Amino acid sequence: MKILVTGGSSTPGFRIVEELAKAGYKVFAQYNEHDILNMDNVAKVKADFRDLEKVAQLVRETKPDIVIHTAAIGDVDKCEVDKELAWRVNVEATLALVKESSKINAYFLYLSTDYVFDGEKGLYREDDAPNPVNHYGLTKLVAENIVRSGLSKYAIVRTSHIYGFGMGRKNFARAVVESLSQGQKVRALVDQWLSPTLNTLLAKAIKELIEANYIGVIHVAGERISRYDFAKAIAKRFGFDENLIEPITMRDIQFKAKRPRDSSLDTSRARSILKIDFYTLKNSLEVFYREWIELRGSG
Ligand SMILES: NC(=O)c1ccc[n+]([C@@H]2O[C@H](COP(=O)([O-])OP(=O)(O)OC[C@H]3O[C@@H](n4cnc5c(N)ncnc54)[C@H](OP(=O)(O)O)[C@@H]3O)[C@@H](O)[C@H]2O)c1
Asked: Which among 53, 49, 51 has a CA at the least distance from the CA of 30?
């Protein structure tokens, strides 16, 4: 079984590649600027998705049974500033990938986001109406619709606030650990709620979904929590000084892109299907903590 993972150098993508390769799948891992570590069962492919011919070529040359599409411009503010780039990579490259994948009848899993919602309600279910408040969310929603209308064998996995070690841009939880471990203060929003999701557990959940041939939309994410309480929970589990966490509000930050206030996800559907505990904060922080100890040991 051959699996193509796009965005193999991102925080979620890298763990997905690792998880599938460990399980014995033949994995093609695409990256663009950040080369991926060498791993058994993994063939790395460099491709810039601004070139749509490269996207098509990637599928034609690897001929995967399964495509897991995580590559995107994931930086919300960057999408707002460079709308054309975001549209090219997040929308047009997805369309090119979907077209080629449908020709070979590959199963297609698209990694999407809680930011398709406006954040006015929170705990969104799969069939709640999306209403993105920024360009990033809009591009991801349009890409979802391309996947839905262009393929029959597809899964759209919406997740929220991915954190973890491995590869990818620095994420909030990692920044919290790095700052607090050095006795430095961190600022955290008291008025933004999310469902922080550990990359390692997301990868295991995605493996289960593809092995179950899941079709349709599904929310895979952690427990609803504010960024401030999340930072506190990290401090508590890691044994850091909680007083170093300074509460701030959205009004204290000049974001380039508007943020949803509460984009947390209802994950009851995934919890009823999946065996893995991808969901509880307690388990997620336990795994995250053990990974940090391991990293410190090896570093
Ligand atoms: N971050 C979150 O909290 C979050 C929440 C929900 C869903 N997601 C989804 O998870 C995925 C990864 O998000 P992220 O925040 O980790 O994104 P990211 O840091 O922007 O990483 C995106 C990935 O896409 C690749 N990429 C970017 N531009 C590319 C281009 N021009 N051509 C080919 N590949 C390109 C990057 O490769 P290189 O690094 O090698 O250039 C990287 O592997 C996205 O689909 C995002 O929508 C993220």
From this structure: 49
